[in-house]
Design brief:
Blueprint lengths: L2 E4 L11 H12 L7 E6 L6 H14 L4 E5 L11 E3 L7 H5 L10 E3 L4 E4 L8 H5 L2 H13 L2 E5 L8 H7 L3 E7 L5 H13 L4 E7 L27
Parallel strand pairs: 1-5, 2-7, 2-8, 3-6, 3-7, 8-9
Antiparallel strand pairs: 1-4, 5-6
Helix pairs in contact: 1-2, 6-7
């Protein structure tokens, strides 16, 4: 298995917020052993979705869990710019789903113990058709037996339908939303889209909280809030 190095010079690993990510990891654990594959989305780009997924994956792996992070944002991956691979080019999810490589060739170990990553790969001509490929669900079912948690970074659900399709194949879904950036009606619509997929909606992560005008006491407040499946009201 090749190894990916995470670029710590970016803000993708947020050390000062480890307490909040640990709290989120704890919330994920309390969801139960049947929740292993989780799709993470946001309403729009730049809400911090990829930062949350990799830091959550790191927190879970540091607790001793075997974690697989899948970059399924094959249209415009943020995570792709944060990795450096040993020994050549990166084969990713799109290479496997298109039949151009075997599944073992897209699994990469990392500098974080217990954390494995599947990169998105090259942007395909038809991203939607690839994630609808039966091999995607077969892949998840296989990984569910081997990993304790499979965290899936999906495209923003307010932009494309990919996240809802991926969520349908997962045990649950989570919506990440930037504090003060998204109107409630759009958050509510995004939750309804995730719920309509048939996946269990687990909750929301409130991200990028302004500590100057809030009571959270840190840059971000990370947690799965409210009752699972609870809708956001206007």
């Amino acid at each position: 298995m090749k190894k990916i190095h995470i670029n710590y010079n970016t803000n993708i690993i947020v050390k000062d917020l480890s307490e909040h990510y640990n709290a989120l990891a704890t919330n994920i654990q309390f969801l139960g052993k049947d929740i292993k594959t989780i799709a993470f989305s946001s309403v729009q780009p730049n809400e911090g979705k990829s930062t949350v997924t990799i830091n959550l994956s790191k927190a879970l792996s540091e607790l001793g869990y075997k974690v697989l992070l899948i970059d399924a944002d094959t249209r415009k991956s943020v995570l792709a710019n944060r990795f450096r691979v040993e020994g050549g080019k990166i084969e990713g999810l799109t290479s496997y789903l298109s039949g151009n490589t075997e599944i073992e060739n897209i699994l990469y170990s990392t500098d974080i113990p217990n954390l494995t990553i599947i990169p998105a790969g090259k942007v395909p001509p038809s991203p939607l058709s690839l994630i609808q490929n039966p091999n995607f669900e077969l892949m998840l079912n296989a990984f569910r037996k081997y990993y304790d948690y499979v965290i899936i970074d999906t495209p923003p659900i307010g932009a494309v339908i990919d996240a809802a399709i991926i969520a349908q194949k997962c045990d649950g879904s989570v919506l990440i939303t930037e504090s003060g950036a998204i109107k409630r009606k759009f958050v509510k619509k995004a939750i309804e889209q995730l719920e309509s997929s048939g996946s269990r909606f687990l909750g929301s992560v409130l991200n990028k909280v302004d500590i100057e005008s809030s009571h959270y006491g840190a840059y971000g407040a990370y947690g799965v809030y409210g009752k699972y499946g609870e809708r956001v009201e206007d």
